[in-house]
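F.,

This is the one I mentioned.
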């Protein structure tokens, strides 16, 4: 696992997407386990800031950590090239290169939002198991995941930002009719720099 000895997390700044910042319910502060650095909110929900465990080929993201519900996956949280900085003592939490081993990830139904570049450049990642409950995927969350050939999006998904198909091997995309929304909001550049040639909206 990424070494944490001697690192002071005081003053570490969490970079959340705009929607998460708007819905922040008051912070309990940065906390960490052997596998996760996370920000806990006063309503007992969690924003995963960074995965710091030793990644194998499969990760199942928990629905709860320390009694808090996991609702948000933060920017670069599972990217092997995303590092963190602690301004309190000018220390860096190094990139987690073990995430280069990741081939499959399961995301629980409690997760509503996947942040910017959350899984970007996980070159070996082939399969993402989404769950009903996911509502938005922010920019570049899966960019550079060149072994992903398809996504099975849940019907609850209603917003997909740009760059999520860039650098993947996805050629066709299916959006299921939502049980909660009558539309899927796509950014103008959602499919830019991608191999996607067909997009179907299920009626």
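My design for it:
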């Amino acid at each position: 696992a990424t070494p944490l000895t001697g690192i002071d997390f005081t003053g570490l700044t969490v970079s959340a997407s705009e929607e998460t910042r708007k819905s922040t319910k008051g912070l309990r502060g940065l906390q960490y386990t052997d596998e996760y650095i996370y920000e806990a909110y006063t309503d007992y929900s969690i924003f995963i800031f960074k995965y710091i465990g030793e990644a194998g080929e499969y990760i199942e993201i928990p629905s709860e950590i320390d009694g808090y519900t996991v609702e948000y996956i933060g920017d670069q949280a599972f990217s092997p090239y995303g590092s963190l900085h602690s301004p309190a003592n000018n220390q860096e939490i190094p990139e987690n290169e073990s995430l280069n081993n990741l081939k499959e990830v399961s995301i629980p139904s409690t997760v509503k939002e996947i942040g910017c570049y959350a899984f970007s450049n996980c070159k070996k990642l082939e399969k993402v198991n989404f769950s009903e409950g996911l509502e938005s995927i922010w920019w570049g969350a899966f960019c550079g995941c060149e072994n992903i050939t398809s996504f099975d999006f849940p019907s609850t998904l209603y917003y997909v930002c740009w760059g999520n198909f860039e650098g993947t091997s996805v050629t066709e995309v299916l959006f299921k009719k939502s049980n909660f929304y009558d539309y899927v909001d796509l950014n103008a550049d959602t499919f830019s720099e991608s191999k996607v040639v067909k997009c179907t909206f299920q009626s």
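The two ends are 45 Å apart (CA to CA).

Talk soon.
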